């Protein structure tokens, strides 16, 4: 039988009456509050009993508070029959087994003032900080979407974070608004000589929903990390986020240990700095991580190179273009991203004959399920293909539009470098962008038609029949 349990509670710190009622209900079920951590609340088993709890904010709450005033307040509570249970940030929780204990607070005006000062230092500050961080993250994701739409719409992790960030921002704004509504309602009640207002029930529902979203986000990151359909970039980003979350939880647990031991501030700062440095180093270490792909097919060695024993089938192969078999073949298929917005799969083939003649074929198929995604991806593809840069000499790259009729496409571009064709084409159909590149394999009109027949979207083929 467990003697201790840990729970993630959904209580708000300004919900004084709700927290007291919850703890009394737990005591009636045989669980007494032991300690409140940064994430979990710990309870210990005891005999079921009727225990009254009270949550208050001491007169000297905060880092600048006078310890003597806090100790004096504790003595007064003890004399009135209240036993200090634990701290909750700047709040304190007391328990009493008396049938009708003396009220812990008699001046609700001063209590509300202390609660408000404490919430501004803790609860509201955390809400604004979290909302601000999510806003900055959403801004950078928006810049990525506008500047690099291909990587953005092919990354399941970036899309997930872009969807979750607005939810968290709205949740933090809702939490701040809920607190201020509670505060104004409490002011009116205190002026009328009554107790502080009861926090609305939906506060707990909102907190529980945020915990559920975090849990689902964690599961999605784990699934993305191990899913064979995820791209390597998505897997790497998922791993970095999981490492960050792991160290965040570890630092929270370390903070609890520091609090219990009363570690001096200098040592805590040094330890925190070292822990933060460890996070940065781990994130940098996992940056080049790439999830292992499917197992390598069986191969053999010829001419000091590896070749496939049984080459996998491709939508388009060099054998199809040349009309003759190749003695040695090595083929690869890579999923570069699969999301509800787009899918990109690349295919590559290296082939050789016994007399040493070699050829190379590469093509990628990028499908966009929405028109605005397609247009953004096409624009980036054309910009990348026409990018100019300087090394020892000036290389000029540009895309030249060609007649799409031989290809059976909607639009065709060929990439040139220093006014020389590179053998790389960009073929466009509605919702699909195909990049084709060959070496030692000229492409004639018949082969262009074959490429279109193999790589064009099915609905396009049906329309042209």
Explain how this protein is built.
- The protein has 465 residues and is an alpha+beta fold.
- The protein has 13 helices and 17 strands.
- The chain has helices at residues 16-28, 67-79, 108-121, 123-147, 149-153, 156-191, 202-226, 232-261, 265-285, 318-322, 371-385, 445-455, 458-464, and strands at 4-7, 31-36, 41-45, 52-56, 83-88, 91-96, 299-302, 305-308, 328-338, 342-352, 358-368, 389-390, 394-395, 397-402, 411-417, 420-429, 432-439.
- The strands form five sheets. The protein has a seven-stranded antiparallel β-sheet with strand order 9-10-11-17-16-15-14, with helices on one face.
- β15 and β16 form a beta hairpin.
- α3 packs parallel to α4 (123-147) and α4 runs antiparallel to α6.
- The longest helix is centred in the middle third of the chain and has 36 residues, at 156-191.
- The radius of gyration is 32 Å and the shape is elongated.
- The termini are far apart.
Based on the model shown, name its key terms.
465 residues, alpha+beta, three-stranded antiparallel sheet, 13 helices, 47% helix
